[in-house]
Amino acid sequence: MRKIKLRFWNKNNDTMYTVDSIDYVGDEITVNDGFLICDEQAVLMQYTGCYIDQVSYENIDPELYEGDVLIDELTAKKYVIEFSFGAFYACCINHEDNVVLSDFLGEEDVSKCGNIYENPELFK
Q: Where do the domains of the chain lie?
């Protein structure tokens, strides 16, 4: 069984946090004993259940979450992990290639180079 893990990006202080606890009350979601998750403050991201052996930079977590950026070293194409239609996909940036994540991770020359929030320079 896949572990259910979450993290969130705090837009107010540009910091990524691990979700230790989550509470749903009505239409509100709070994490870590009180931080309110809403579109204006934070982005909640789910763990894919997958990890990658190759990382492009030091201090990059090998676990893969929504919003993480992968690079195909052979083509130099960058992919963002997204959840859609009940599955995680590697969605190519500026191209039409969308691949089911588990199929994409079977490639030998794929590495993780960051995420869309902590590494916006990957899109320049």
A: 6-123
